[in-house]
């Protein structure tokens, strides 16, 4: 399957809404405070205590609501990415080939990751294990309702039976590729689209292998046998 041929309308799709970064989240001062702290100090250097002080909420209340720092920051990522996630669901469930829909969402997600100040700085500084877990958890949360069924519909039979690859592993692998690509220098859309088509899409949407032609295989084997027999006769 030619990836270029199956995605002729990708350029015509509207751009998604941006991740919410500076705008407040109505009714949730804790998440707003967490966002401000992360903007100032980065993900790895922000503590629950600092978020509690910034928001005016007691540490006890903060721990009761979120349990730990990663749960709070996961909630922040999910909330801030919700407009983009809604757009992604519309693309995943909309018209076009499966490959075209997945490529479109990944393309804009990676470009958007590079536009979010604190996330872009974290990517280029080198994401810590905690930051990677957080990103993957947020990505998996958004993939459950739309991306997972799409991947399941096109999963290669050999991948499922021989390699025993699961949809959850594909989603996790996709998050890894997003981190790698978003960590690079700022992309232009065409170059990034080419990278996705070469490195990522053949794994997520495998090319359909043609059924073996038994008569052709038999002919090849017959010619090989003839060559081997001729070689034996030529030996002194």
Automatic annotation (TrEMBL):
Q: What InterPro entries does this protein's entry cite?
A: Homeodomain-like_sf, HTH-type_TetR-like_transc_reg, HTH_TetR
Keyword DNA-binding included in the entry's annotation: yes
| Keyword entries, A-Z | DNA-binding, Transcription, Transcription regulation
- Quote the Pfam families the UniProt record gives: TetR_N
| Domain annotation HTH tetR-type: ranges | 24-84
Q: Which residues bind DNA?
A: 47-66
Q: Which PROSITE patterns match?
A: HTH_TETR_2 (PS50977)
Its signal peptide is none
Return the protein name: Helix-turn-helix domain-containing protein
Organism encoding this protein? Sphingomonas immobilis
């Amino acid at each position: 399957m030619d990836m270029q041929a199956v995605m002729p309308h990708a350029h015509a799709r509207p751009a998604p809404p941006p991740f919410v970064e500076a705008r407040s989240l109505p009714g949730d001062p804790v998440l707003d405070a967490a966002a401000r702290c992360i903007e100032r100090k980065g993900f790895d250097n922000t503590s629950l205590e600092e978020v509690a002080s910034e928001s005016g909420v007691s540490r006890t209340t903060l721990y009761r609501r979120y349990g730990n720092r990663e749960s709070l920051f996961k909630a922040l990522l999910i909330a801030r990415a919700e407009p983009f996630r809604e757009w992604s669901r519309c693309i995943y469930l909309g018209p076009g080939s499966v490959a075209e829909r997945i490529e479109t969402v990944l393309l804009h997600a990676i470009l958007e990751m590079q536009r979010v100040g604190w996330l872009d700085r974290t990517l280029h500084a080198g994401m810590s294990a905690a930051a990677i877990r957080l990103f993957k958890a947020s990505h998996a949360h958004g993939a459950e309702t739309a991306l997972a069924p799409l991947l399941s519909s096109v999963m290669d039979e050999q991948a499922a039976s021989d390699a025993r690859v699961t949809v959850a592993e594909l989603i996790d692998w996709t998050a890894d590729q997003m981190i790698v690509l978003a960590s690079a220098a700022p992309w232009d859309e065409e170059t990034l689209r080419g990278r996705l088509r070469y490195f990522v899409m053949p794994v997520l949407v495998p090319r359909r292998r043609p059924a073996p032609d038994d008569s052709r295989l038999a002919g090849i084997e017959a010619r090989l046998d003839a060559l081997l027999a001729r070689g034996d006769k030529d030996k002194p």
